[in-house]
């Protein structure tokens, strides 16, 4: 049985997210992941939580470093109170180029910085809930002042799950060390990669603090190709082929290619981006690669495909919510099947 989180197009803003969240809840999804980047993830989460009753809403993932842990703590506290405990805070480091040139924020080693980010959030939450003096002093973050006037005070369900979006070895191990969960990247969600690479790294991190790695929830976020008909499925597979061609041009996402002996494809894709030959990239994602990396099937087939592929890896899974509600009848049946 899976807990199934709906995902929506990252171009969906807060107004669209509200109606999409209501659809996801009506279809039986357990949760919803909203994006952060094109639109503010915290605002989108607020809109989704406000119009739903039982749906868990997480951010997958909030770009952490341009935001102070204190401002994120206040927003997360409000969202948790607003929803009666249905908020999950996903955090990610982003890449250096974006942090420096797009957000105008200084860069530093992401794993040590994220460790302090999570630790400082927990210290702030403890001060909010129990009124203990705030004292967190690290190399990156220092919080030693929280006057009673600025303390929002306790809430009924103060335990806000913190999940990390992680790809590399250090960040993945950090999730096992300090986080409540890890959200995989679509390029590194193959079950073999998860078993041979991700899970051992989580165990490595958990061992640093004598935690059990099973305490770190694993939310699998694969790309999925589906549709009501064979024709729609073929069209969706080609759309995902284009996306994979773009994603695998990024060196950080090559480890899964290298695991299967396709490391040269990543390097060739990167070269095409440097040459501006974007239209040639999808052709480098062969049928063999697509079959291995992209779970595919019609709505009648896809639940069984996913159960066979991921059933022994994790009990949490994302599934895309189509923009067109005409698919909802089929989609509700998929969610029911994944719940079995």
Describe the protein's topology.
Blueprint: E1 3-7, H1 14-26, E2 31-34, H2 41-50, E3 56-59, E4 62-63, H3 69-83, E5 87-92, H4 96-102, H5 110-130, E6 136-137, E7 142-143, E8 162-165, H6 169-178, E9 181-183, H7 191-208, E10 217-220, H8 230-247, H9 255-259, H10 263-274, H11 287-293, H12 299-310, E11 316-320, H13 328-339
Parallel strand pairs: 1-2, 1-11, 2-3, 3-5, 4-5, 5-8, 8-9, 9-10, 10-11
Antiparallel strand pairs: 6-7
Task: Give an overview of the whole structure.
The chain has 340 residues and is an alpha/beta fold. The chain folds into two domains: 3-231 and 295-339, Luciferase-like domain (TIM Barrel, Alpha-Beta Barrel); 232-294, no CATH class. The protein contains 13 helices and eleven strands. Strands 1-2-3-5-8-9-10-11 form an eight-stranded parallel beta barrel, surrounded by five helices. A two-stranded antiparallel ribbon has the order 6-7. The model has no long low-confidence stretch (mean pLDDT 96).
